[in-house]
Design brief:
Blueprint: E1 11-13, E2 19-21, H1 25-46, H2 50-71, H3 83-97, H4 113-136, H5 143-166
Antiparallel strand pairs: 1-2
Helix pairs in contact: 1-2, 1-4, 3-5, 4-5
């Protein structure tokens, strides 16, 4: 059987057995992390740049850790998100940032199909960050999660620009 019927009464059960409403901020937050992870998976399935695909797969695993941590408040686990995960993103940022010119103006998100997909990941990542911040005003959240998601949206911005550059797209500035 693939359905449980346990959620028919507007509640869901956390791993520890606690029942909470599906409309709770905790559920909204890990649902948004799951959405981001799925969007990353879609990008991985469609991107043509293997180096980026492999790094996005690692990020998907990190997002899975975040989702589990948010879904299980107070659980002390060896697989929690740590500073090393944040450093991993910072290393990727530094690596990709060397491939592009510094910006002195705003650019329009978009470009190539690959670049546009990663720009979209940036926006979903920013929304995920807002949900995590909301949750952190009500409950304790591992501070490394907030750092990670903040760095992730920055990384997606740089990677989108790199993919556009690699594929010959010239970035466009907004017309005011």
């Amino acid at each position: 059987m693939t359905y449980t019927k346990k959620g028919d009464n507007m509640e869901t059960e956390l791993f520890g057995g606690q029942k909470i409403f599906k409309s709770s901020q905790r559920i909204e937050t890990y649902g948004t992390v799951d959405e981001l992870n799925s969007a990353v998976g879609l990008a991985v399935a469609q991107l043509k740049h293997d180096d980026v695909k492999q790094e996005l797969l690692k990020i998907q695993n990190h997002l899975h850790i975040i989702c589990a941590e948010i879904a299980n408040p107070g659980d002390d686990r060896p697989n929690s998100l740590k500073e090393d995960h944040v450093k991993f993103l910072e290393g990727l940022f530094d690596k990709y940032d060397k491939e592009i010119e510094p910006l002195n103006k705003f650019i329009l998100p978009g470009g190539t199909v690959d670049g546009s997909k990663v720009h979209y990941l940036r926006t979903v990542s920013r929304r995920t960050e807002r949900e995590i911040v909301r949750l952190s005003t009500m409950s304790t959240v591992n501070p490394e999660i907030l750092k990670y998601i903040n760095r992730l949206s920055d990384l997606f911005f740089v990677v989108a620009r790199v993919l556009n550059r690699r594929d010959g797209y010239v970035e466009k500035n907004p017309e005011y």
